[in-house]
Amino acid sequence: MVAVALTWVDVSGITRTKTVPVERLEHAATWGVGMSPVFDVFLLDDSITSGRHIGGPTGDLRLHPDLDRLVTLAALPGWAHAPALRYAQDGSVHPLDTRALLRRETERLAAAGWTVKAAFEIEWAVSKGDGDGFTPACRGPAYGMTRVTELAGYLRDLLTALKATGVKVVQLHPEYAPGQYEVSVAAEGPVGAADTAVLVRETIRAVSMGHGLAATFSPKVEADSVGNGAHVHLSLWREDTSENAMAGGDGPCGMTAAGEAFAAGILARLPALLAVGAPAVASYLRLVPSHWAGAFACWGLENREAALRFVTGAEGEREVAANLEVKCVDAAANPYLLLAALLAAGRDGIGAELRLPEPVGGDPAGLTEAERADRGIRPLPASLKEAVAAFEADDVLRDALGEAVTDTVSAVRRGEIDLLDGATPEEVAAVTRWRH
């Protein structure tokens, strides 16, 4: 091992880094590595905005590697990776440290007797072209074995690298769009799940480049094609008994009262949650009806058109497998910030003892507007501007995330809205394609 990449994810969803030679790792863990706070207001094109709490050239933070999550990067020989903790020089936690924010939300749930297991599904598309355009690296049928055969060596090396890096892969398969694949990993605690999401994406990126390919995780790679999601799977567990609250109850689909309330809390806040879960202008080119993106605020049993898909798992393993899949989110999201917001929404649902409406079967787009209104099925925001307005008006998320985070998220989102104001879908896709 020669060097260690210390990473954090900014508000725009881009993984940033400072690196240290391995002989400086102990010093970095003790004293940190300097960085400017201004990175939190970088936009996706690396231009800089400012908010009421963050902005300008003044100030310094200290990056401290979390040595408990230090791993060798099998796809980058000689390199290791450690997620960074960010502190002010006086030792206080930086208010925009979203990893610390997620840890705080996890602790708040634990204080109420609950823990969460989480995992991200990672979708990406692979290009064999040079330059800024996208040329699918495989052309077999959607979900077809042909796509595995076309890139068998690439996929083999990817699985090998992930295993060597300590990532537990559950499955990998071709997806719908040309050149698109998806990998699912084992569930773990929320902070670990977000760390793993970053690690998986950077491993995919490195293996792709090693094969002369380019990987994109953008929510909309091409304006006329299906985009990449980054669905989140969540299950709520009782800390004292290690029982899954999403199974074994007498609520909808076997949920316990707490499991139902957790899901209902997320459902109630979905419009606001999109400001952190579908945070790019390009996200709303993906988030359209009848594309399995979850464009309506509803839930359903194994319904891939609902924003929240409830998964029971196979008969005989439901006690461990039952979970909630959040489908309306994508990989432009900061995974730490997204999980923190989801946990806060779920925790509020438990505290308020919320209940779910009737589940939706089939595509909500197939119902008339009157039928959807009668059943309380609302379309999710159709633009980032609408999502930001819902986010700014949501007191539950503001209280959980804090004023500095709320203000900075809004500032960055509005900066990117202005950046792409008037752009065509093709231009939005092109600007976003290689940033995430």
TrEMBL record:
Describe the location of the GS catalytic domain by residue ranges. Answer: 98-436
GO biological process terms on file: glutamine biosynthetic process
Q: Which domain of life is it from?
A: Bacteria
Q: What InterPro entries does the record point to?
A: Gln_synt_N_sf (IPR036651), Gln_synth/guanido_kin_cat_dom (IPR014746), Gln_synth_cat_dom (IPR008146)
Q: Which residues cross the membrane?
A: none
Keyword annotations for this protein, in alphabetical order, are: Ligase
Protease: is it a keyword of this entry?
Answer: no
**One term of GO molecular function:** glutamine synthetase activity
Q: Which Gene3D superfamilies match?
A: Glutamine synthetase, N-terminal domain (3.10.20.70), Glutamine synthetase/guanido kinase, catalytic domain (3.30.590.10)
Q: Which family does it belong to?
A: Belongs to the glutamine synthetase family.
Q: What is this protein called?
A: Glutamine synthetase
Native organism: Actinomadura chibensis
Q: What is the lineage of its organism?
A: Bacteria, Bacillati, Actinomycetota, Actinomycetes, Streptosporangiales
